[in-house]
Amino acid sequence: MTEPRGEVFDLGYQHYKGPREGRMRARKALWMNGVRTALGLGRGPRAKILPVLLFVAAVIPALVLTLVASQSGPGGDVTGHSGYYQIVSIILFLFAAIIAPELLCPDRRDGVINLYLVRPLTPTDYVVGRWLAFFSITLAIVYFGQVILLVGLTLAAAEPLDYLRDHWLDIPRFLGAGLVVALFTTTLPMAVSAFTTRRAYAAAFVIGLFLISTAVAGALTEYDEHITESPEPGGWTVVQGEPVAGDAAKWFALIDIGSVPIHVNDLIFAEENESELAKLVRELPTGVPIGWYLLLTVGPGFALWWRYRRIGT
Description:
It is a single chain. The chain has 313 residues and is mainly α. It has a domain at 23-212 and 299-312. Helices cover 68% and strands 5% of the residues. The protein contains 13 helices and 2 strands, in the order H-H-H-H-H-H-H-H-H-E-E-H-H-H-H. A two-stranded antiparallel ribbon has the order 1-2.
């Protein structure tokens, strides 16, 4: 019989003598991990399908508007930078509702949060790092589409340089409006995800909030229509009356969660949105839609921070 033999290897273990980057390095690593998680990097192909599809869906409207501008020629009535956010806001909200829970829910469900929340990271470091990771992705999506649209509209103009000279203010406007849209679509889903460990529950709640608020706002602001006989023989005319909620309809128009950042977007571009909700909101003082936006952005942001402060104590 052969006797088992053991061997001891001298691996030369030594103390680490490299740079110790401390808390900032941990923050950067947390941010990078959040970006990779949201985009499905480092995981299987199935994890990348949804982020890619949603990213493509957010860029397609810009490409379509660019093609329309190139075909319509000078003076064509083409939706510009303000209209792009009106079109793509629904896609961004769905993107946030599905992807944001990936950054928070699994860490708490699997207990990984206890490994993160050790020195030098604090609960605030963790939640800010996760929030910044998702905010960076959302902002990149909205800006990428706007850059494509800017290039397309410029090249479609008869005189590209003249177009840029006449519309250069659109650049700071779509940068500011994009910041407004990205802040809102990042913060609300992240705040919801902080109160459940189930990604499906968080996504369902955010999407349900979007659909229900849209339906309720539409029902309360719907105009009463009735048919009357016109002076012409055998003719009938549809007459539009007052909104169902009367004069309060302009306040009920704010209920639509998905349109909250769009109202601020319209103010930044100083353009009149032709949707019925936007027309009603324009009857309110300018500070009302801005204050409502701040309430629905800062409030959930505070709730997100407060939730993780409690987890860390």
